[in-house]
Amino acid sequence: MKKKIATCVHNIVPAVIREMSLKAAAYKDVISLGIGEPDFDTPGEICQGALGDALAGHTHYTPSRGYTDLIQELSLSIKEHSGLELDDSQLLITHGGMGGLTACLRAVLEPGEEALVPEPHFPSYGAQIAFAGGEMVYIPTNFEDGFILRPETVEKALTPKTKILIVNTPNNPTGSVIPDQVLDDLAEIAVKHDLLVLSDEVYDRLVFKGRHESIYTRPGMPERTVVVNSFSKTFAMTGWRLGYAYGPDWLIEEMLKVITYQTSCASSVSQRAALAALRADQGQFEAMWREFRERCDLVFQRLKNMPGIRVHPTDGSFYVFPNITEITSDCERFALDLLAQEQVVVVPGGAFGPSGKGCVRLACTVNKDRLSEAMDRLERFVRRYQG
Ligand code: PLP
């Protein structure tokens, strides 16, 4: 039979990050800095909370928006962390941060409409935009600028078909944080050109310099911004697949329709886990934050002394994104050879868009001893590579 596959699905290339992990399975004693998830297990009290609630009967469909007590607790937590007062009608619970991205893009994009995506970027944006029938338009950034988006490049990319701008701070894969002034300028552009903004803030609690700032707080933005967030990174809960989004109630209402007909609701048990996470002692998550900061610093300090490597400190997230163009222009070959010769997994930067070529992404998601060992192996490899 002729393979009858929708073009928007057929055109998706397999995720490089997962491919690297599959290749790594052929080697022994691999140190994987490949996949972007906390290595910590979900704290026991969160698992216990979910289990207890499941045993007490929280095993049914929930409201599509999410359990009311979870929405209320989340609202309090958002107020505590960012000072925002949200009405319950502005919030909804999603199937991971990914579920918020899907629901937002599906709710707003008409076929052929353009979504502006600063790159390097979280690879799933491209597929999500394509599923919604939209077109992804790249906004390049570069290593020399610390991968900070220049507002003028956004303005240059605007066309009559532009509908939405995606911003991601702290950024995966670069570890950069958008400075306050740039957020101000981007907000002005969005207001001036009547753009929607999808602000992906899943690393908002992993900021190492200053405090997290959201474009949502800028003048004119609450009526046009959807903030997507997740329990995955902050609470070490990637497998529970739970996230949330907030924005103007008219847009959240439309996203709710997408969720209702796509998944009915997020998993009931995971929602109970999220509630337990919000009520848990927050000190343990601050300890994770400290650990990620120390690891990113350790990697930065080691990389900056390696020949041919240029690197910026990580301002947020748990990624380091060094530039290796003085060593080679082929970052994929570099990553494959590093795996074959030293059994360290890194992700070639081209997986995150054209501006990522020349870099590799290291996720600091192994403990400091293993990270130091990975840096020893990388240094040996780099010195050999350069003869
Ligand atoms: N946005 C960014 C920037 C991410 O890095 C990720 C996950 O890696 C997500 C969204 C998706 O989050 P979740 O795993 O909660 O779906």
Characterization of the model:
The longest helix has 22 residues, at 283-304. Helices cover 41% and strands 13% of the residues. It contains 13 helices and twelve strands. It is α/β, with parallel strands linked by helices. It has helices spanning 7-10, 16-24, 44-55, 68-82, 96-108, 124-131, 151-157, 180-192, 249-262, 268-279, 283-304, 331-342, 368-385; strands at 31-32, 91-94, 114-119, 135-140, 162-168, 196-200, 225-230, 243-246, 319-320, 344-345, 347-348, 360-363. The protein has two domains: 7-42 and 283-386, Aspartate Aminotransferase, domain 1, CATH 3.90.1150.10; 44-279, 3-Layer(aba) Sandwich (Aspartate Aminotransferase, domain 2), CATH 3.40.640.10. Helix 3 packs across helix 10 (268-279) and helix 5 (96-108) packs across helix 9. Strands 2-8-7-6-5-3-4 form a seven-stranded mixed sheet, with helices on both faces. A three-stranded antiparallel sheet has the order 9-12-11. Strands 1-10 form a two-stranded parallel ribbon. The model has no long low-confidence stretch (mean pLDDT 96). It starts with 6 loop residues before the first helix and ends with a helix. Strand 3 (114-119), helix 6 (124-131) and strand 4 form a beta-alpha-beta unit. It is globular, with a radius of gyration of 21 Å. The structure holds pyridoxal-5'-phosphate. Residues 36, 96-98, 122, 168, 172, 200, 202, 230, 232, 238, 243 line the site of pyridoxal-5'-phosphate.
